């Protein structure tokens, strides 16, 4: 299924009910940038994004507002700030919370109380290791085999919001040879609290070979995020990351935990991951 966007911001191709040995089937949406079909020699970095139904279409997005990733990237390309990218939107399923909770950290002994609370509240077992195998062993080879990608680590990124921020960072930690950067938007640190922050901070690859982007607002669910993010920032600095070079954290006063607010600032992580760091 192919959708030509009327505003000229590229083409979306849907691969419905993409099956997996590791995780439940779900739709995979692939956005091809303007110029993809006319320049047969061009190859593109790839951004793998979670909660794929929220990216391109308000009709499928939670809350009726999409990220508008395609419009933002098309604009950044037109302004010469990035060279373009392919965006792969991986739809979520009813197993979302389990698939996005960093599994190995969650299973660590200091998080016994968290595991008990999680089991009581959600009745969902963490399944993020299987989800990441789905992404790395099945989705990525399919994308690299069917689209003109730059498949190397330096041109492969992962990004998401809320618990999608958690699984994005976990993906980079588990597969640092696959992903060159992670965009973690309004990361839902309270899912594991300070112990999860510390565990993830201890597992970071050393600075200098990856890019890390974090942000948070101050309203609605985001209102509780700042202390956790500051704690993570200290761990990122201790791991050797340099602010504004291979690591960026941004605070957005008044911003809510919603797709409409993420849409207003998504140009920042996109430009940081794909383009010039000096101009973000």
Protein described:
This protein has a 9-stranded mixed β-sheet, with helices on both faces. Residues 276-280 have low confidence and may be disordered. With 280 residues, the protein is an alpha/beta fold. A hairpin with a 6-residue loop joins β1 (2-4) and β2 (11-18). It is 35% helix and 18% strand. The protein has a single domain, classed as 3-Layer(aba) Sandwich (Rossmann fold), CATH 3.40.50.
Topology at a glance:
Layout (H helix, E strand, L loop, with lengths): L1 E3 L6 E8 L7 E7 L13 E4 L19 H10 L7 E5 L5 H5 L2 H4 L5 H11 L5 H19 L9 E6 L1 H12 L6 E5 L7 H10 L8 E7 L8 H13 L8 E6 L6 H7 L1 H8 L6
Parallel strand pairs: 4-5, 4-6, 6-7, 7-8, 8-9
Antiparallel strand pairs: 1-2, 2-3, 3-5
Feature tags:
280 residues; alpha/beta; Rossmann fold; 9-stranded mixed sheet; 18% strand; globular
- Summarize model confidence as the mean pLDDT: 90
Please state roughly what percent of the residues sit in beta strands, choosing from under 5%, 5-15%, 15-25%, 25-35%, 35-45% or over 45%. Answer: 15-25%
Class from helix and strand fractions? alpha/beta
Spatial strand order of the main sheet = 1-2-3-5-4-6-7-8-9
The dominant shape is globular
Q: How far apart lie the N and C ends?
A: 35 Å
Summarize the biggest pleated sheet: 9 strands, mixed
- Tally of separate helices: 10
Number of strands: 9
């Amino acid at each position: 299924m192919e959708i030509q966007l009327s505003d000229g911001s590229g083409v979306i191709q849907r691969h419905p009910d993409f099956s997996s040995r590791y995780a439940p089937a779900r739709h995979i949406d692939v956005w091809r940038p303007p110029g993809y079909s006319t320049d047969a020699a061009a190859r593109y970095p790839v951004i793998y994004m979670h909660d794929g139904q929220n990216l391109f279409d308000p009709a499928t997005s939670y809350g009726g507002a999409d990220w508008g990733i395609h419009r933002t990237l098309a604009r950044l390309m037109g302004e010469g700030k990035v060279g373009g990218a392919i965006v792969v939107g991986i739809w979520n399923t009813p197993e979302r919370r389990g698939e996005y909770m960093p599994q190995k950290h969650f299973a660590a002994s200091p998080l016994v109380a968290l595991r008990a609370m999680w089991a009581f509240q959600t009745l969902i077992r963490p399944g993020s290791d299987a989800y990441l195998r789905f992404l790395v062993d099945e989705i990525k080879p399919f994308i690299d085999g069917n689209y003109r990608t730059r498949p190397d680590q330096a041109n492969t990124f992962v990004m998401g919001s809320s618990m999608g921020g958690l699984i994005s960072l976990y993906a980079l930690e588990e597969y640092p040879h696959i992903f060159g950067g992670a965009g973690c938007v309004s990361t839902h640190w309270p899912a594991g609290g300070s112990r999860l922050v510390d565990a993830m901070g201890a597992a970071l690859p050393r600075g200098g070979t990856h890019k890390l982007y974090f942000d948070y607002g101050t309203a609605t669910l985001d209102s509780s995020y700042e202390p956790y993010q500051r704690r993570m920032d200290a761990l990122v600095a201790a791991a050797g990351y340099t602010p504004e070079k291979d690591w960026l954290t941004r605070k957005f006063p008044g911003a809510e935990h919603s797709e409409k607010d993420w849409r207003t600032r998504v140009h920042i992580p996109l430009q940081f991951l794909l383009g010039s760091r000096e101009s973000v």
